[in-house]
Amino acid sequence: MTGVRSSTVDGVLTRSARRTPGRTALRYADRAWTYRELDEAVGTAAAVLTEDHGLRPGDRVAAYAHNSDAYLIAFLACARAGLVHVPVNQNLTGDDLAYILRQSTSSLVLTDPGLADRLPEGPAVRALRDDDTSLLAALGTPRSFAPAREPDGDDLVQLLYTSGTTALPKGAMMTHRALVHEYVSAITALGLSAGDRPVHALPLYHSAQMHVFLLPYLAVGAENTVLDAPDADRIFDLVESGRADSRFAPPTVWIGLANHPDFASRDLGGLRKAYYGASIMPVPVLERLRDRLPGLAFHNCFGQSEIGPLALVLGPDEHEGRMDSCGRPVLFVEAKVVDENGEDVADGTAGEVVYRSPQLCTGYWDKPEESAEAFRDGWFHSGDLAVRDAEGYFTVVDRVKDVINSGGVLVASRQVEDALYTHPAVAETAVVGLPDERWIEAVTAVVVLKGEAAEEELIAHARERLAHFKAPKRVVFTDALPRNASGKILKRELRDRLA
Fold first, then answer.
1. CA distances from 14 to 38, 196, 221, 466 (A)
2. 302-336: per-residue pLDDT in tens?
């Protein structure tokens, strides 16, 4: 009787297929899938994975590939077959790639032929597409699939590895129940509807693009377009042709869009909904985007892999007067701010954000100590430093580990970054603390320029806007900031490189 009451990730698609079978669900390259066709393909793929590869419920299946329709079908097929999907950043190589495959004990790796030679020896390999023996090619011969045991809501469906910006990645254990709750939170908080035409251009291995947008949009029956990458020209074309009216991107991608030479001349009036997240959006950049596209509704999405990942949202009608806020908790999330002892702090006081939610992971794969550290006192400890105001809006100040101890005074790197972004020559910046005999940690700005500026000029510019102890002691210029595929700047890598 358990399955009667259960809701699973693949069931989200099945319900849409029964409700609107002939509606277009997905477009990728020159292929299009109706909801019925996509649901049938998922069943065939589930049969291929279990019958051809002998996989059993609970086995881990890694996905190391670029965006495609086959990538989505493979994920949903794993969900239907009771397998645990392990999305892997397709930019990882060497020891970083081997670590996740080894730590997750994946039995099979689904990949693109062009990436297969990067894989270490061990797990079996099958191409997702562009190969006569690929999973995509196998979908041409439909198969029926009837699992020996239907997955339950409490079964694991995915290991979402954290981005590893401060330490080795950890696999957050996500259940069907957690992700389905998160889909409902996303739909209600972001106003997702069947009439939207979203374009999905960020990597599908990342939880935000897959679980905040693509799966919730499939749940409501929207027409989705998946791109290989966030190509600005391609996105401009889709908007102008009426094929896309909403998109999600981290701040680094929005910055690139705003700096694109055609941004001011293309007709982007058809873009109705804009979503940003994955890292902090510099306020000056957001103001520039809103000035150019005044009719575009911006939503700030905040969270982390462990909570599915959406936790807080700032809606388009909530930005005025709180442009640096990440909003209030979504439907199934309870959040508060605590001190180092786990005690609640007063509104307006900085502390760590902690969560309670059915969206949360059940812990970290094969890491009991880290799981116990994150889940304590009845709450999940996020590692984010934030302030909550009297109306319940949260403003994230920094990651706890990114706060800089300058001469015994704590400095939030975000505040320094926002000050530097107001200089017209600054394209991108990241502020870190470097070991210093006098200051303990010296506030150091790493800057990508789009014009001319000297170190002394930028330091003076920051001092005009900040207390002097917060201003950078040093500015380092670089051609690009290191970041992962989801757009997060890798401050740990910057600290290691400059220390």
1. 9, 20, 11, 54
2. 999 999 999 999 999 998 888 889 999 999 999 99
Amino acid letter, residue 189: A
Sign of the C-alpha dihedral computed for residues 182, 349, 395 and 323 taken in this order? positive
Q: How confident is the model at residue 267 (pLDDT cuts 50, 70, 90)?
A: very high
| In 265-367, beta strands by DSSP E | 273-277, 297-303, 310-314, 328-329, 334-338, 351-356
Q: Which two tokens stand for residue 423?
A: 């200089």
Token pair in block for residue 412 = 């939030």
* Length, in residues, of the chain: 499
Which residues, 6+ apart, have CB-to-CB distance to 456 below 8 Å?
A: none
Report the 10 Å Cβ neighbour count for 368: 9
Sequence letter at residue 86: V
H/E stretch holding 462 reads helix 455-463
Cα 437 to Cα 467: distance, rounded to the nearest angstrom: 21
Do residues 424 and 488 make contact, with C-beta atoms less than 8 angstroms apart? no
Distance CA 87, CA 361 (A): 15
CB contact at 8 A, 223 and 25: yes
Q: Which of 217, 237, 212 is nearest to 227 (CA)?
A: 237
Quote the tokens at residue 260: 């694109």
- Bridge partners for 297 per DSSP: 273
The identity of residue 326, as a single letter, is C
Residue 407 has pLDDT above 70, yes or no: no
| Cis peptide, bond prior to residue 282, ω within 30 of zero | no
**CA 31 to CA 68: how far, in whole Å?**
10
What are the residues whose beta carbons fall under 8 Å from the beta carbon of 89, sequence distance 6 or more? 161, 203, 205, 206, 484, 485
Helical (H) or strand (E) element with 369: helix 368-374
Please give the Cα distance from 403 to 228 (Å, whole number).
35
Here the tokens at position 393 are 């809006």
**Cα–Cα distance between 218 and 298 in angstroms, integer?**
21
Distance CA 423, CA 453 (A): 9
Contact 173, 159 (CB under 8 A): yes
pTM: 0.84
**Are 143 and 44 contacting, i.e. CB atoms less than 8 angstroms apart?**
yes
Q: Which residues contact 411 (CB under 8 A, 6 or more apart)?
A: 403, 404, 405, 433, 443, 469, 470
Res 1: pLDDT? 43
**Full DSSP string of 401-436:** GG-EEETTEEE-HHHHHHHHHTSTTEEEEEEEEEEE
Amino acid at 257: L
- CB 312 within 8 Å of CB 322: no
8 A C-beta contact, residue 327 and residue 318? yes
